[in-house]
């Protein structure tokens, strides 16, 4: 300003706006200001300022969506509608598998007609069906009856009966049970078949003098031999079907298949069976076993049979210096050391038994421990005493969801005899195979079935055929059904919690992988449900296991963390300031 | 946190921060509108887990480490195995250069008990003890490479004991002197655990200042919580060990241990007696417990339900007899002479088994115990 005015003071800036603008708008020429008043502003303050302000504001407004888009969080869209839909469908129609009951009468003389028999049987079934606990997964039961008398067969259903007429007669039933089982299997078509599973019960009216007896085979059929009249036959058929084929022998009030603690499968569908040989005191004797050759060979059919339910891996190890942690007392009468059932819960000495050494078990698979405990010389022979005073025949017990223990006393153990210390011995293959039989029984128990059936509650002598797969086909059907149902329900519950979690944390990143896993899981779940309505147990179990594994993978994805996510204030603080 | 409804789909950045109208209400409806998980029948208690967390670092917080190790020793003694204990220690006192007694940690000035003896398995040590790792352990969301020993592999039949000690305040617990676990984070994690059925019952014990505020936001059923002091109160250390130079144990934990030293794994002292054993005049603070979310009566719950470990066992009545025979007769033919051979094989096998039975019986007659 000093250059503008010569010896005049510059005008004060506190004057009115008009003057100020005149100061700003007029060019700084010394001649104009000296002496004169600056010319008043002719136009309203305006367009330039307006344009400047507007352009700044506009650029901000235009840039704002770009800014927000560049700082948005990536959320993969989850199909929550589909999840809610599936959940509603499952709640209104719980998954149930339709089954079929086919009764075959091998008669020599005349009797009631086919249609009336079918009606009576259907009535008998429907009253008993829903009484027992484990039958919740079975849906509609369709009943059909076939009568073979003389040379021909009549059937109650219009559709072709699977029974091959004339292949078997009542006289065949006197042959050995295993043989007759296979004959029946071939007479009923010989394949397992797709679609709805049909259970067949054959009544062979043949009086072989041994009285009435029932034999339940290892496929999907059973038969009754002996002189039975029709009413008795019908009630027997109903009993066998409901009690065993539908319920697996679980009585009312017992816990068995279907309850959570009898489904020892990891959430990713894997199970590791870990077999351990425990030498309590290697100073006395050291045992080894040939598990690699014998055990794995024998267990292969079992692993195959359980494949739809779980992917099973088998491992084995030998451990030393593993004493038990409960106390046993010596009983001279029984000739050994005795453990009572009250000591058993404290038997597993987790401090010294380092059982969990599996390398193939991933984070979410389940490990079941099968332990052979070899007592030391001090406590050998070690017996398990039942509450009624009897000694246990197997010396074995299980803990649900953990595994099983067998106490094996080395042959010829006696406290008095002096033995060379630490002699290395091999468990004989016969002993090993017998221990494996106990382990198979325990595996059945862990999955909710009985290790072996005693014919309780049936009026007639019942025999159960034993399968090399460890489970009869009808037992496998039960397992598939229960696991399919439970996995399906658990999968849907997981997806629902995931969906509500994602919705409740709007600023949480949802990765693409999670969205993909949810979609695949929904697909598998729908497939499982469709197969369930068709009655196909094994593929439904496979899809349901897969659906659950994917849902759990999505829910437990490490990128979802429940730390409170950045609030709006946080967002402003980072990007705006 | 104030958010409007988040529409699933491509995010609408402009909408969300303009519609800040329904803050907490919407959040609440969403978290409570989560449909209940498919109601499973009441699970049976079949295993126990313990998560023991020490969150303080530095030598002068020796007592927090000693607290945690004392609880570790107690639960191991009462039966919980290492594979079901997650032990998180934020610093190393036993091998600290200032420790006069290397590799030894004491919780009493009489030095009678070395807590760091043999057989201590620390799962998370040093800088691995962070809020994030702690919440990952609780919710189960680990990276796939994390080994099984560092995971909480509980299921719907598990009882979990969660013990936390360190420095805390109103609604927070300090981790490693640079971050905090807030009470609503803990409540959130517990809610997630309950939804995934990761526990049947949970007992939370907190030994910090103003401990009771840490579990004030919990809402999941089946949770029982006890803290060493209430809001506005401090928790105090028990005594100073002049040899080591720092306080070696806190009052609340000291009295808890005094209670447990009298027990062994067969005892059935109840939780009620444990909670009633805390005397405010001895603790110099009020031990406050919260049982509104817990259905069972405290005098019916034995302490071994949380602090010990009892396995549920079922006797195996019989083996799956006949399995071997069935396996040997692998491919039976429907008709033919092979059937007869197979039958003979089976008969031999069963005869062999009955022979073994007899020899077993005869051996037992010979083995005499002196």
Automatic annotation (TrEMBL), chain A:
Q: Does the keyword Transmembrane apply?
A: yes
What family does this belong to? Belongs to the PIGS family.
Residues covered by region (Disordered): 1-47
What's in the GO CC field?
A: GPI-anchor transamidase complex
Composition bias, kind Low complexity: at what positions?
Answer: 14-26
Q: Please give the InterPro entries that the UniProt record associates with this protein.
A: PtdIno-glycan_biosynth_class_S (IPR019540)
| The protein, known as | GPI transamidase component PIG-S
Membrane topology qualifier = Multi-pass membrane protein
User: Main localization of the protein?
Assistant: endoplasmic reticulum
The protein's annotated pathway: Glycolipid biosynthesis; glycosylphosphatidylinositol-anchor biosynthesis
* Compartments reported by the entry: Endoplasmic reticulum membrane
Keywords per UniProt:
Endoplasmic reticulum, Glycoprotein, GPI-anchor biosynthesis, Membrane, Transmembrane, Transmembrane helix
Pfam families xref list = PIG-S
Please give a single GO biological process term from the UniProt record: attachment of GPI anchor to protein
* UniProt entry tagged with the keyword RNA-binding: no
From TrEMBL, chain B:
Sorted alphabetically, which keywords does the UniProt record give? GPI-anchor biosynthesis, Signal
Q: What positions does UniProt annotate as the active site of this protein?
A: 167, 209 (nucleophile)
* Pathway where this protein functions: Glycolipid biosynthesis; glycosylphosphatidylinositol-anchor biosynthesis
Question: Which molecular-function annotations from GO does this UniProt entry contain?
Answer: GPI-anchor transamidase activity
Task: Show the GO cellular component annotation of the record.
Answer: GPI-anchor transamidase complex
Leader sequence residues? 1-33
- Give GO BP annotations, semicolon-separated: attachment of GPI anchor to protein; GPI anchor biosynthetic process; proteolysis
Q: Which family does it belong to?
A: Belongs to the peptidase C13 family.
Name of the protein in question: GPI-anchor transamidase
Phylogenetic placement of the source organism:
Eukaryota, Viridiplantae, Streptophyta, Embryophyta, Tracheophyta
């Amino acid at each position: 300003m000093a250059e503008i005015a010569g010896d005049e003071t510059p005008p004060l800036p506190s004057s009115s706006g008009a003057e100020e603008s005149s100061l700003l708008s007029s060019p700084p020429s010394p001649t104009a200001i000296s002496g004169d008043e600056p010319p008043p502003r002719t136009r309203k303050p305006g367009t330039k300022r307006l344009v400047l302000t507007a352009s700044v504001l506009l650029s901000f407004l235009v840039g704002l969506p770009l800014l927000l888009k560049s700082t948005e969080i990536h959320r993969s869209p989850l199909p929550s509608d589909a999840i809610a839909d599936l959940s509603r469908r499952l709640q209104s129609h719980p998954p149930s598998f339709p089954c079929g009951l086919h009764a075959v009468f091998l008669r020599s003389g005349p009797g009631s007609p086919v249609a009336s028999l079918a009606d009576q049987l259907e009535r008998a079934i429907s009253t008993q069906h829903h009484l027992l606990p484990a039958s919740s997964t079975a849906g509609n039961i369709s009943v059909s009856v076939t009568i073979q008398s003389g040379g021909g067969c009549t059937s109650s259903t219009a559709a072709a009966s699977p029974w091959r007429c004339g292949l078997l007669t009542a006289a065949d039933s006197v042959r050995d049970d295993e043989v007759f089982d296979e004959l029946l299997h071939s007479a009923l078509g010989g394949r397992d078949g797709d679609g709805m599973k049909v259970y067949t019960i054959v009544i062979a009216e043949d009086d072989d003098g041994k009285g009435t007896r029932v034999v339940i085979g290892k496929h999907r059929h059973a038969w009754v031999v002996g002189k039975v009249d029709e009413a008795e036959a019908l009630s027997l058929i109903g009993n066998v079907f409901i009690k065993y084929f539908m319920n697996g022998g679980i009585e009312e009030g017992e816990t068995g298949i279907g309850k959570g603690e009898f489904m020892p499968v990891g959430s990713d569908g894997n199970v590791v069976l870990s077999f351990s040989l425990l030498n309590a005191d290697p100073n006395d004797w050291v045992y080894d076993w040939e598990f690699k050759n014998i055990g794995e060979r024998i267990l292969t059919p079992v692993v195959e049979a359980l494949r739809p339910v779980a992917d099973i891996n088998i491992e084995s190890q030998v451990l030393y210096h593993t004493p038990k942690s409960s106390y046993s007392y010596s009983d001279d009468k029984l000739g050994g050391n005795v453990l009572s059932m009250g000591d058993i819960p404290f038997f597993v000495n987790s401090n010294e038994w380092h059982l969990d050494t599996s390398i193939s078990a991933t984070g979410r698979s389940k490990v079941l421990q099968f332990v052979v405990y070899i007592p030391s010389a001090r406590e050998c022979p070690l017996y398990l005493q039942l509450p009624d005073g009897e000694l246990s025949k197997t010396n074995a017990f299980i803990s649900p969801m953990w595994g099983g223990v067998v106490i094996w006393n080395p042959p010829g153990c006696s406290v008095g005899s002096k033995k060379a210390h630490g002699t290395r011995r091999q468990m004989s293959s016969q002993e090993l195979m017998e221990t494996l039989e106990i382990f198979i029984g325990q595996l059945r128990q862990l999955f909710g079935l009985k290790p072996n059936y005693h014919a309780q509650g049936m009026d007639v002598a019942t025999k159960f055929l034993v399968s090399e797969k460890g489970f009869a086909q009808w037992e496998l059907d039960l397992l598939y059904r229960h696991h399919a149902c439970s996995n399906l329900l658990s999968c849907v519950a997981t997806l629902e919690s995931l969906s509500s979690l994602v919705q409740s944390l709007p600023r949480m990143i949802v990765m693409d992988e999670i969205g993909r896993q949810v979609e695949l899981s929904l697909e598998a779940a729908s497939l499982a449900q469709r197969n369930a309505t068709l009655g196909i147990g094994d593929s439904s179990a496979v899809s349901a296991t897969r659906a659950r594994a994917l849902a759990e993978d999505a829910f437990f994805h490490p990128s979802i963390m429940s730390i409170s996510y950045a609030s709006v204030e946080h967002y402003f603080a980072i990007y705006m300031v | 946190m104030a958010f409007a409804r988040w529409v699933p789909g491509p995010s609408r950045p402009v909408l969300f921060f303009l519609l800040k109208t329904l803050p907490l209400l919407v959040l609440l409806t969403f978290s409570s509108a989560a449909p209940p998980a498919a109601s499973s029948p009441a699970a049976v208690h079949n295993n126990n887990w313990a998560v023991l967390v020490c969150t303080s670092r530095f030598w002068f917080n020796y007592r927090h480490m000693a607290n945690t190790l004392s609880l570790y020793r107690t639960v191991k003694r009462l039966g919980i195995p290492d594979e079901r204990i997650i032990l998180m220690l934020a610093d190393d006192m036993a091998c600290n250069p200032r420790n006069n007694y290397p590799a030894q940690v004491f919780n009493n000035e009489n030095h009678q008990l070395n807590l760091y003896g043999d057989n201590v398995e620390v799962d998370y040590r040093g800088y691995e003890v962070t809020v994030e790792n702690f919440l990952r352990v609780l919710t189960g969301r680990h990276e796939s490479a994390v080994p099984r020993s560092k995971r909480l592999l509980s299921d719907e039949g598990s009882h979990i004991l969660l013990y936390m000690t360190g420095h805390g305040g109103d609604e927070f617990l300090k981790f490693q002197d640079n971050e905090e676990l807030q009470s609503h984070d803990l409540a959130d994690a517990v809610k997630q655990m309950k939804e995934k059925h990761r526990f049947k019952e949970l007992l939370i014990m907190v030994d910090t200042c103003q401990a009771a505020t840490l579990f004030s936001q919990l809402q999941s059923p089946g949770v029982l919580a006890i803290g060493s002091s209430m809001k506005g109160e401090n928790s105090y250390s028990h005594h100073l060990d002049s040899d080591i130079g720092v306080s070696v144990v806190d009052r609340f934990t000291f009295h808890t241990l005094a209670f447990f030293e009298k027990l062994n794994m067969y005892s059935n002292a109840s939780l009620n007696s444990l909670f009633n054993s805390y005397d405010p005049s001895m603790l110099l603070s009020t031990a406050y417990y919260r049982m509104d979310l817990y259905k069972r009566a405290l005098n019916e719950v034995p302490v071994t339900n949380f602090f010990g470990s009892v396995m549920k066992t079922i006797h195996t009545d019989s083996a799956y007899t006949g399995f071997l025979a069935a396996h040997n007769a692998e491919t039976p033919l429907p008709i033919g002479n092979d059937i007869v051979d197979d039958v003979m094989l089976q008969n031999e096998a069963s005869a062999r088994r009955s022979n073994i039975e007899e020899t077993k019986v005869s051996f037992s007659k010979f083995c005499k115990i002196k």
